[in-house]
Amino acid sequence: MQRSYLFVPGDRPERFAKAFASAAHRVVIDLEDAVSPDAKVAARAQIADWLVRQLADDARPRLMVRVNAPGTPWHADDVAMLRELRVRQLMVPKSESADALADVAARSADDAELTALVESVAGIVHMREIAGAAAVARLAFGSFDYCVDAGVEGMDRELDAVRSAFVIESRFAGLPAPVDGVTLATDDARLIARDVAFARGFGFGGKLCIHPKQVDAVNQGFAPSADERAWAARVLARLAENPRGAFAIDGKLVDKPIIDRARRIAAEQ
User: Which positions bind substrate (predicted)?
Assistant: First the structure.
């Protein structure tokens, strides 16, 4: 399971290697929000040069690029550059329709995988179709942009229904658990840990990060704890001893959903 998605500005190639040196599961080189309009063309060229000259082969599976949104002046050239360089993993901001995402997939490398960043009311309304669009591999929540679009002022319980929708639609489409939005604080370890625990409780499986300092907390917070792994091991050990009979663990009856959860925990790396 990919838990941490670390953004790095696309016009700061001197930071790319540092981002890859982190423990982030995906390094998201950003051509969208992190780059001003007058720097986007130059940033695209800098990224292309860095990918050809400096990206190590063993780092390539961790590479993701956030392109500019469909309909912007830079989008088509972003996608064309990534296709030429056979970049497989794209994050598509302002994802609002399955047709737009299918079009991105058709213009990308043949084996491309899209992370659909849903960050508007229209995106939430059409999320079921988005989750089922061609090449969409995962949903991510652009929580701050969504709140601006929807006129929502709070970032906690005010978003409960939206977070549940991400989890439901991801599960319905057979996608991995969705990726939660960013935490703006970079030095508040307690707040980051709280946000991770909150998102995990809803069923999210990862989080967008804006600083390398956030990565370890995200990786650890979304991973099964030592107690959870120990519980899963006990469940599966008892199941092996008694594969057809009922049994209890910690005073609770174990049935198929419990066994399935134990297997998921045991399978996580």
Answer: 66, 119
